[in-house]
Write a structure and sequence with these properties.
By secondary structure, the protein is of the alpha+beta class. The chain is built from 2 helices and 3 strands; from the N terminus they run ααβββ. The N and C termini lie far apart (103 Å).
Length: 140
């Protein structure tokens, strides 16, 4: 009995390319999404830290709020993120009294890249919290 071979020369390359595309494209997309969220998380942490620093070094409470919002907005703009939701709470008594503290929370959203949805379903919320202390020897 004699078996004839089918003409399948070159199909291994085609199979490899198809499988590589089916595996590598989703893997690359997942990596892009994870890196984008990581970058946004780092931006939120930086924004919260800078907002806290700007707040506790201000002279008045109204100037402190404006400085904190501006610092958070600038920090997130450096990463290409929209303006944050910023909340500032006093920890110990008056916000700017010596040895008192504040807690700053920054919330923002990062858009998932290449997502077909434009109605808010393709965003991931990111937030960060930072506590800052007013200097003990502050004049005021």
């Amino acid at each position: 009995m004699r078996f004839e071979r089918a003409a399948d020369g070159g199909t291994a390359v085609v199979e490899f390319v198809v499988l590589a595309v089916l595996v590598m494209v989703p893997l690359a997309y997942a990596a892009v999404v994870v890196l984008k969220v990581h970058s946004a998380t780092y931006a939120a942490v930086t924004a919260a830290r800078e907002a806290g620093r700007a707040y506790v070094t201000a002279d008045t409470t109204s100037a402190a709020s404006a400085r904190a919002r501006s610092a958070a907005r600038i920090a997130l703009a450096d990463y290409g993120l929209p303006d944050p939701e910023l909340s500032i709470a006093c920890i110990d008594g008056s916000c700017l009294a010596p040895s008192s503290g504040i807690e700053v929370e920054v919330r923002t959203q990062v858009a998932i890249p290449f997502s077909p949805f434009g109605d808010g379903r393709s965003v991931i919320p990111v937030s960060a919290v930072h506590q800052a202390r007013v200097d003990t020897y502050r004049r005021g």
